[in-house]
Amino acid sequence: MTKDKSAKLDFEGQRPGEEVLFVFRRHIIAMRKGFYLLLIPLAITAVPPLIWQDNLELFLLPIAGLALGLFLFFYHFVMWYFTHYLVTNQRIRQVSQKGIFGKDVVELRLSKIQNISYNIPGFTGEILGFGTIVIQTFVGDLVIRYVEHPEKTYNKLQDAVEDAIATQGDNEESI
After folding, report:
1. How far apart are alpha carbons 141 and 116 in whole angstroms?
2. Enclosing domain of residue 62
3. Do the domain assignments include residue 25?
4. How many domains is the chain partitioned into structurally?
5. How confident is the prediction along the chain (175 residues), in pLDDT tens digits per residue?
6. Are strands 20-24 and 9-10 parallel, antiparallel or unpaired?
7. Closest Cα to residue 160, out of 22, 6, 12?
8. 141-148 and 20-24 as β-strands: parallel, antiparallel, unpaired?
């Protein structure tokens, strides 16, 4: 995705006349496994120097644990950062990072969407501002978990779908 000076967002595979309405990604809570993998090696490698304080070489262990934790955290950060959802005036495009070099792209035409709903999972979802959005079509459901501000995203998606259906209806009448 590139952004030029006129604040118009362009992406690879964009069709003529297609405009990007908004882009959203999953909440940072979706990366909690990466945070755990950062802290656990550091905590485990910090124990031996506390037990055997007379052995100075053991004080290098927490540094190695931190390095390992940062490596594992970086992997999960890349997965989170490069997974995003792009909503245009014609479609929703889900780009999911799979591994360091792979990615999956799923596209869904806005005019094919039957229903959109959202769920906020209790107290933590309400406090931290995340939830799940379910987009239903004839083919199946697209479930997007850990969406940041699901109410706002839901409203934007509803508006985009209504505009796409209205535009499709106008195009069919003119034929």
Report:
1. 10
2. 33-77
3. no
4. 2
5. 444 443 578 888 888 889 999 999 999 999 999 999 999 999 999 999 999 988 888 989 999 999 999 999 999 999 999 999 999 999 999 999 998 889 999 999 999 999 999 999 999 999 999 999 999 998 889 999 999 999 999 999 999 999 998 887 666 555 5
6. unpaired
7. 22
8. unpaired
pTM: 0.80
**What are the DSSP calls for the chain, one per residue?**
-EE-TT--EE-TTPPTT--EEEEE-B-GGGGHHHHHHHHHHHHHHHHHHHH-TT-GGGGGHHHHHHHHHHHHHHHHHHHHHT-EEEEESSEEEEEEEETTTEEEEEEEEGGGEEEEEEE--HHHHHHHTEEEEEEEESS-EEEEEEEESHHHHHHHHHHHHHHHHHHHHHHHHH-
- Taken in order 16, 22, 23, 26, is the CA torsion positive or negative? negative
The answer as to whether 93 is a domain residue is yes
